[in-house]
Amino acid sequence: MNPATQSFRDHLSRLDQARELLTLSQPVSPEFELGACLSILDDGPALQFADVVGSDLPVVGNILNSRERMAAALGIGVADIEDAIAASATAPIQPRIGDQAPWQEISAPTDGVIGAGLGHGRFVRPSVLSTVSA
Predict the structure, then answer these.
(1) Which residue range is the domain that position 42 belongs to?
(2) N or C: which end of the chain has fewer CB within 10 A?
């Protein structure tokens, strides 16, 4: 898959269609409950938390918790993951810089602390959790 055409939303949609995305609608605390759910189901489905206490955004996790899911997200075969990672390290794509993007319309007070306004609790592992707009 061409990196320019990869889409996080498309990947979530594919996981949902394959019944590999479980959506939890009951309120969940970002401080301990969210991480506990992800840990308990570490080898299971990807999880979407629709109602995270203190956040207006849903949170998803466990979306890349297997080689198969990682390969699917990249649009490659499982056997090609290592080569794709090596290639991306030696020939990274250049970022696209624009003056307008939907995320630029959202601001959260930080009180001088990076990420303080995001409301995800103390134990956020950015490599595991992602926020998605509805």
Answers:
(1) 3-131
(2) C
pLDDT grade for 128, boundaries at 50, 70 and 90 = very low
Comparing C-alpha atoms, which of 24, 27, 61, 25 is closest to residue 44? 61
pLDDT over 70 at 86, yes or no: yes
- Amino acid 105: pLDDT: 64
Angle, CA of 25, 31 and 35, to the nearest 5°: 65
Q: 28 near 34, Cβ under 8 Å?
A: yes
Number of structural domains found in the chain: 1
Count of Cβ atoms closer than 10 Å to residue 58 Cβ: 18
Nearest partner of 118 among 128, 130, 127, judged by Cα: 130
11 burial via Cβ count (<10 Å: 0-12, 13-18, 19+): buried
Per-residue DSSP letters for 64-131?
T-SHHHHHHHHTS-GGGHHHHHHHHHHSPPPPP--S--GGGG-----TTSTTGGG---S---TTT-EE
End-to-end alpha carbon distance in the chain: 25
